[in-house]
Amino acid sequence: MSKPKVGFYWCASCGGCEEAIVDLAADILGVVAAVDIVFWPCAMDFKRADVEAMADGEMAVCFVNGAVRTSEQLEMAELLRRKAGLIVAFGSCAHTGGIPGLANLYSREGVLAAAYDAAFATVNPEGMRPQTEYAAPEGTVTLPELHETVKKLDQVIPVEYYLPGCPPPVKLITGALGAILEGTLPPKGSILAPEIALCSECPRKDSKPEKLDFTAFKRPHQIIADPALCLLAQGLLCLGPSTRAGCDAPCITGNMPCTGCGGPLEGTKDLGTNALSAAASVLEATDEASIAVGLAEVPDPAGAFYRYSLPASLLYAKKGS
Amino acid sequence: MATLGPNQGDAVRIGVYICHCGINIAGKVDVADVTQFAASLPGVVVARDYKFMCSDPGQELIQQDIREHGLNRIVVASCSPLMHEATFRRAAAEGGINPFFFQMANIREHVSWVTADKAAATEKSRALVAAAVSRVGGHEALERQRVAVKPDVLVVGGGIAGIHAALTLADSGKTVYLVEREPTIGGHMAKFDKTFPTLDCAACILTPKMSLVRQHPNITLWTYAEVADVSGYVGNFSVTVRRKPRYVIEDRCVGCNACVEACVFKEGKFADEFNYGLAKRKPVYMPFPQATPSVVLIDPATCLHFKTGKCKQACKAACERDAIDFDQRDELVEIEVGAIVVATGFQPFDAERVPEYGYGQYPGVYTSLEVERLVNASGPTGGEITLRDGRVPKAVGIIHCVGSRDHATNKYCSRVCCMYSLKLAHLVKERTGAEIYNFYIDMRTPGKGYEEFYDKLLEEGVHFIRGRAAEVTDWTMTPDEEGKLVIRAEDTLIGAVRRIPVDMVVLSVGLEAQADAGEVRRLFNISCSHEGWFLERHPKLAPVSTFTDGVFLAGACQGPKDIPDTVAQAGAAAAEAMALIDKGYVELEPNTAFIDEERCSGCKTCIAMCPYSAISFIADARVARVNEALCKGCGTCVAACPSAAAQQHLFTDDQIFDEIAGVLSYV
């Protein structure tokens, strides 16, 4: 029996998800032995034409990381959708929009203006913007078009499974690969991670008091956090209570609060509003003045509560310019 | 989005009913248009409009349609759920479906009563109906939980309201705990001399009831005690009562007053609270001769033993029954009751807040309650009406509406002042023969025999000057004003400013909510109006109920009222408490929160949030759990839960989002 064909692809992402596959370390040999990698442009020499040449559904599974914000990414997502039996949205950006998704707080022109006009050390007196076509002496060159909004993968193509995390933890990747190879995948649409929040596996869980008692959030650089005590109890904005588990809390082990890359739990319509509502509940503040004091050290609420999930949230994106 | 409840195998079949409410809704909303619109919504099988959906034929319409069209979901667009949700749930249940497969759209209070434009009102009604239809498909079948009711009743406050409620309940066989803050029951009524309009002696009609309370085998009376904590819910309240130390063992004291006589203070030296400081008492004292219980108490603020530790304790030596106990401490008593009657009364308006009337400045200015004590035969002067300097007044001015009907103090009418002013006018004139001048804005004497009493006073030659008094002054202009207080007022009937010299000024102070009404309100989890009066559930149809089931109101804590109204209300509150207890059980609204333990990460966020302490952390399972009997369905934990593990029946996230989607789909 021939080995199942597997592909990896990246859209709008930082490359960390590719690293995560490499992070499988020695286990990657097992993967290579068990499957036939037919597409992985980051690591191996495959071209788009190789994919186009495949029969529809020929690839058993394709892991796609990154959000979708350009015409090229959209074309590739649609192409891979045709060629792959299963699409796994790999990592926060594909799952919920990720860091690139924060661009949805601005219009497309706002993003371009920030990059091509306002950025430090940029000199662009003509106000040039990237062109999709340019007639160079050597011939016409093209660039993909930047979309108005950033989308998570399942907003452009149907997706069978999701591997959350920024990047997905090795444990979840090996679990997912194992399930694919052994045919023990859960129902389609599932998130291949535990259906419970991070506190459940947090090593500091038992140190969390029933009543939190702080009047202002603090930022990690402002205190030397007690390495044994719940970070929320120390006033740090830890999103662990709202974030899907499965990572074994490496950030907290490193004495840093959870920033929510594991994404929302099923039943949570919106990680950001849920986390915000929970944070507002625990903060001891009763009037506008004390609320302002309490939140003074959350200078970027959208970035703090929706860091990885703005395109997946009810807010989704800025409307208009 | 519509999903089926667990009891429904078939597809969602919705009936929508648009109520005209006479012209309340139909006068503003195009009900035919909304009905037609409702019929076009997905899942809707029947849509009708009807004049009064809450009427018998209206409810029958629902039941008939359930039978004939196999409806399994009902939407009624009418008034507020507070008004008729129970009615329509019952109709749905009698039609044969789970009562919670029902949703109400409020197109009266939220639309027709508050929208000027007809087209806009119709649009809004469509949107609300779309929301209800969108939501109702996802409703679950719920069961009401039955909980047994504790048979005992707590009555808070031992004025005439609390006394009457306690006696009514005790006579019906209920065990009653009567808690009174002061050392004696009796309240304000015990201080009055006569009552209007019949001029019954207040003590003659009140003290027998006070004794009955003391003797009643079904009443446990705790005076000098306050409710410290209330938890639980209708039918099952746990109450902590704090009994303050009176330094006298109540069971031993027989009220012989030997200790009072023996006290090292030979004369009373300290302001006597019962007589508003018009008499003096000793540190050990009996509040007044008919105090109930007839037990003395020691005031540690004035007692030499407590102040210096050097008293020879003559009181203790004089007590043959060894009832004095200087080491008494606060005692906390826990009781379990099914119902609570709050009868905490009022406080008189502080006359010093109207400085132009000179109270506290001129010795000749009295409050009406002080004069009640002066005319009382057991009062500080034995019923002689004498001024602080011993003179008998020859002219007395009674100023009405002090702290009432006044934008600077209280806007409301205190309801009793006109009548008690007439009563005091009569009594003072009868005892002293003085000329009496009433300064009034309007005479308000509605009530059985009240107008007749006013007529009688007019015949007695009491003067009435229509106009709010401007000031009371000792600045004289003419020789006949010398040595007098002058009341300056515009007599609006003759259109002139008058100066009336008098010896005594009586300020008819209004009634105010108790100073600590805010704390008491929170203690019992009831609401109050902005003036501080406790809020009844409905001003006409539920006048003694509150928004907290099982807590009832009696007397002036709900608003100014006279003795007959207070007693009537106390009887009503007792009857409501009896109805609750005799039913034997309460059905809890199934809108409780629950935690999906599979999804609970044990972050404990919800636990401290719960205002009813209904959530606890289960140590071995490491999850939070809701005690549904304690849960009031406020939804705080649901909002606080960071991971959506806490949800609330009737208000699940899905139902709320379905509702929002319904409104938005229309917009």
Quote the CATH topology of one domain in chain B. FAD/NAD(P)-binding domain
Q: What is the domain total for the residues of chain A?
A: 2
CATH superfamily of the largest domain in chain A: NADH:ubiquinone oxidoreductase-like, 20kDa subunit
State the order of secondary-structure elements of chain A, H for helix, E for strand: EHHEHEEHEHHEEEEHHHHH
Helical amount of chain B: 25-40%
Kindly report the CATH topology of the largest domain in chain A. Rossmann fold
Full CATH superfamily name of one domain in chain B: FAD/NAD(P)-binding domain
So what's the CATH class of the largest domain in chain A? Alpha Beta
Give an overview in words.
The complex is a heterodimer of chains A (321) and B (667). With 321 residues, chain A is of the alpha/beta class. In chain A, the strands form three sheets. In chain A, strands 2-1-3-5-9 form a five-stranded parallel β-sheet, with helices on both faces. The model of chain A has no long low-confidence stretch (mean pLDDT 93). Chain A is globular. Chain A has two domains: 1-193, Rossmann fold, CATH 3.40.50.700; 198-312, no CATH class. Chain A has eleven helices and nine strands. Chain B has 667 residues and is α/β, with parallel strands linked by helices. Among the domains of chain B are: 14-143, Rossmann fold; 258-318, no CATH class; 347-512, FAD/NAD(P)-binding domain (3-Layer(bba) Sandwich), CATH 3.50.50; 593-648, Alpha-Beta Plaits, CATH 3.30.70. Helices cover 28% and strands 23% of the residues of chain B. Chain B has 18 helices and 34 strands. In chain B, the strands form twelve sheets. In chain B, strands 10-7-6-18-29 form a five-stranded parallel β-sheet, with helices on one face. In chain B, strands 20-27-21-22-23 form a five-stranded parallel β-sheet. Chain B has a four-stranded parallel β-sheet with strand order 2-1-3-4, sandwiched between helices. In chain B, helix 12 (417-432) links the parallel strand 21 (395-402) and strand 22. Classes of the chains: A alpha/beta (321), B alpha/beta (667).
